Amino acid sequence: MRYVFIVFLFFNLSAQAQALRDINYSFLYEPTEPFTLDIKPIRTTEGWRVLFNFTSKDTAQQADQYVIRWDIRTSLSDKEGSAVNTEAIKDAISKNSIEGTITLGTSQAPQILVAKVLNNYIQRAWVLYKILEPNYPVNGYLTSNGRVVEKPFVKRNTPVSVVSEGETVTISHYINDFPAALPPFSEGMGTVSRSMRVDTTYTLASGKEITFAEKGLYLVQKDTSDVNGLAFRVEDDYPRFARVESLADPLIYICTKQEFDRVKAAKGDKKAFDKVILNITGNAERAKNFMRNYFRRVEWANYYFTSYKEGWKTDRGMIFILFGLPDQLFKFDDREVWKFDNKTLKATFNFVKSSTIFDPDNYVLIREKKFQETWYEKIDLWRNARF
Questions:
Q1: Residue 160 to residues 147, 211, 340: CA-CA distances in angstroms?
Q2: For 317-376, how does the pLDDT look when each residue is reduced to its tens digit (9 = 90+)?
Q3: Closest of 231, 234, 235, 236 to residue 171, by C-alpha
Q4: H or E segment at 365?
């Protein structure tokens, strides 16, 4: 989940406190965690309004079996923080979820909002956090069916409402077809373009319901000169791809140019598509195994890493798809470090923060020539359905 960092701890409240930057966040993007906790900060004129949604994925563990303790820290090196005033927290508990808001004042320096999630029944605890930066550009959010949209994407033709402090908002639609991430050994870095072509711009009353019929990137602002806003993508079958024509593009990472041209030309023809995959993997059983595992990772890359472009196209999404979860993951103010240290792979990938109004938490991979051999070895394993 974007912005939120998860780590498993042995349940021992008397254990020595640990600085956030020293924790191994190897479970950060682990789909099998028993819950999700989305933290969505909104900067207001008075300070912060932080929306949060806790959902238990384990039907045997209901939401009321969890306790969330909130505190504020000033640095990732701090081992303890100041408890958030209970009067600032408004929440409601249902069978499988806890939804609420936290109201915080302004600060000239970054604040770190920390959530400690405790479960006495299974004797586990997690630590999650979100950095609240004074220049964080997000000042609005979306709702659908009365609930906050936590992820930066919505389905096409799904009614949503834009909530903002002003009476009206300006919505800009960008139809740029952003390219997939470059291999980790390519020269240069895949930074966000400073100029993108706007397809349409229109004004909408804040809180009014709207349906987006066109796919692409959308930016909500007070007006087009505002440095603050809310960006999100509108997609079709997403984050899980269900249509054959949607499956072609993510295969760019493991296909030759000729194979990719053929799989794109197949479009909605499943037989033509399957023939290309069969030629890549060698037999039907390996083809099924490849498709099942590859597109499961594509789905989770979309879920975790969707930004101004689709999650599978981002640098972190690409590494996640090809290499999987890192053995160690560390978070710092300006970067994210993924370390793979196992029998099949020893590599460290560094992602540096590259904030924009379209994604204040965008990360770009530092590419190095040394990754070339590792990359092609991994591609060969995928093509042989060996993971």
A1: 10, 6, 40
A2: 999 999 999 999 999 989 999 999 988 899 999 999 999 899 999 999 999 999 999 999
A3: 231
A4: strand 363-365
pLDDT at 251: 97
Beta-carbon contacts of residue 15 (< 8 Å; ≥ 6 apart): 9
Tens-place pLDDT, residues 63-118: 889 999 999 999 999 999 999 999 999 999 888 999 999 999 988 888 999 999 99
Q: Are 44 and 135 in contact (CB under 8 A)?
A: no
- 3-state DSSP assignment of residue 373: helix
Residue whose C-alpha is closest to residue 223's, from 288, 150, 305, 164: 164
Nearest Cα residue to 316 out of 294, 291, 295, 338? 338
Give buried/exposed letters for 234-246 (b at 16+ CB in 10 A, else e). Answer: bbeebbebeebbb
Residue type, 124: R
Task: Identify the sign of the CA torsion 366, 370, 373, 374.
Answer: negative
Other CB atoms within a 10 A radius of the CB of residue 18 amount to 13
- C-alpha 277 chain-centroid distance: 28
Rounded percentage of the chain residues whose pLDDT exceeds 70: 94
pLDDT digits (tens, 9 = 90+) for 162-189: 999 888 999 999 988 899 999 999 986 5
CA–CA separation, 233 and 180 (whole Å):
16
Q: Please, where are the H alpha helices in 179-242?
A: none
CB 190 within 8 Å of CB 182: yes
Half-sphere exposure for 101 (CA within 13 Å, toward CB): 8
pLDDT of amino acid 16: 54
Q: What is the mean pLDDT of residues 23-30?
A: 84
- Tell me the two tokens of residue 91: 């929440």
Whether a cis peptide bond, with omega within 30° of 0, leads into 239 is yes
Domain annotation for the chain: domains and CATH numbers: 8-132 (2.60.40.10), 140-235 (2.60.40), 244-383 (no CATH)
Query: CA nearest 114: which of 77, 87, 142?
Result: 77
